[in-house]
Structures
1.
Amino acid sequence: MKTSVKSLASIVSAGLLATAAGCASDAASSTDHIKSVTWDLRKPTDIKTLGLPENTVDLPDVDVSITLSDGEVYSAQHVYLMIDGDLQNPTRITTIRVGLGPQTIDQAYQTAKEIGARWHISNSYIDGWYKDAKMYPSYSGGGAGRSSTLPGGNTVGLFMPISGNDSKPVYPEFEIDNVNASDLGGTAAASPSPSSTSNSPTPK
C-alpha cells in the first residue's frame, strides 16, 4: 500500500512534535539552572515545596541557605547537596546532606570544629576522629559526631567520607536528619513571614 506525501508529512510532523514535547519535559525536570537554594525546614518540606522535580537526588555546585528547626541558618557556597527521600513516598524528604568538597585532614578538622561548636557536636568525637585520621590517613573516613535533637525536631551530624583525592583525602558532609520533624512528633517553630524566607530554589 502506498502512503501519500501528505500522510508522510503528517507522520513526520507528529514525530517532531513528540520529540519537541520530550525535550520540553526534560528541560522542565532539569536542575541545571538551580544555582542557589533558600529553604526553611520549620515548614512542612517535600520535593514539591522546595520547587524541585520529583526525581531530584542531588544538586551539584550550589549556594545554600537552610533554616533548621531551631531557627539557626546554615549557609555555604559551592557545595554538593544530596537529598534522601522516603522509598514509599518519593516526594517526602528525610535527610539533606551538604558535601563541602575535598579537604586536607587539617582543613576538615577545622571545618568539623566550626560546625561542631555551632551545632553542639561533642569535641570528643571530633578530636577522636582527628587523632585517628592523622595516624591512618588512608582510613580517615567516618563519623565525627552527632548532636542531640534540636528544638523543633531536626538532628544534625557531621561525617568525613574519604574523598578519593590523595592530596585532600577527606570530604566533610554536614547532615540534617528528621527533616520533617513534625511527622515524628516534633514541634516546628513558628514560620517567618513570606518576605524573609523562600521555600523555592532561586536561579542565580
Note: The longest helix spans residues 5-29.
2.
Amino acid sequence: MAEFSKPLKELALLFLAKERPVGIVLEEETVLAQALAAARFCGGFGPFDALLPAAPVAGMSPEVRDPWDSSSSYPRFPVPDDLYPSSDFVEIDTPLTQSEWAIVRPLFILYVERENAVYLEASRSLGVDVYGRSASEIAQDIVQKETDVQRLMFCMPIVTV
C-alpha cells in the first residue's frame, strides 16, 4: 500500500458514516459501487500511485539499447517496460492518496447524488414527496466534472531522446 493512502472502500464508507448528507437513502453496497465507478473513470485518464510499478532500485541501471541499430527488434525510440503498470484496473481495495481522493471525491459525490435521485424518483409512484435535484440536473454536472477529471488525471511521463 502506498504511503499515506487509504483504500477506496474505507474512503467511501467514511463518507457514508461521517459525511453523508441528510437525505441519502442508498445502501452501503450502492455507495461502494458509485465510489468504484468514479475511481475507475478517473483511472482511465491517469495512473493512481498504488498501481504504478515500483521505483527502480538505486544503483541498478536499465539495459542500454541502441535505438539506431537497424538489426534490433526494439522500437526506434524504446519506452522502458516498467514505465506503465501491467495491471492498472482500479478495485475497491485500491489505496488512494489524499490528492487522488481529492480528484475522485467530487465525481463520487455526484454519482451518489444521481443514484439517490433515481431512487427517490422511483418512489414517487408510492406517493413519496421527492426532494433535491432531479437525476437529469445532476447528470449535467456529472458531464462537466467528468470533463474536468480528464484534465486533472492526465499524466504523461517525460521521455528525452
Note: Confidence is low (pLDDT under 50) at residues 74-79.
3.
Amino acid sequence: MPDPRAHRIDVGPFQLEPDADSSRWRAVASDGESVPSAGWSDWVALAQRVLQIDALWREREARGDAWDQGHAASGALDAENPYR
C-alpha cells in the first residue's frame, strides 16, 4: 500500500502537496497562483486531516507488523503480506 502521507492534503482554499524531490511540502492555493492564506478554522481542518492521515498510516503499519509476526510464527515461506 502506498504511503497515504505522500498524498495531497486539500483543505479548501489551499492544498499541501508533497515535493517529489525532497521530504518537504509546498502550499498551493486553490487557484494555483496566489499565496495561500487561511482562517483559523482552515488551519484546524488541516491539522485534523494531517492527524487522520498519520493515524491511518500507523494503523496499516501495525497491521502489517502483526501479520509479519504471525506469519513468521507459522513457518510458511510463500505467503504475501496484504498490508505491505
Note: The mean pLDDT is 75.
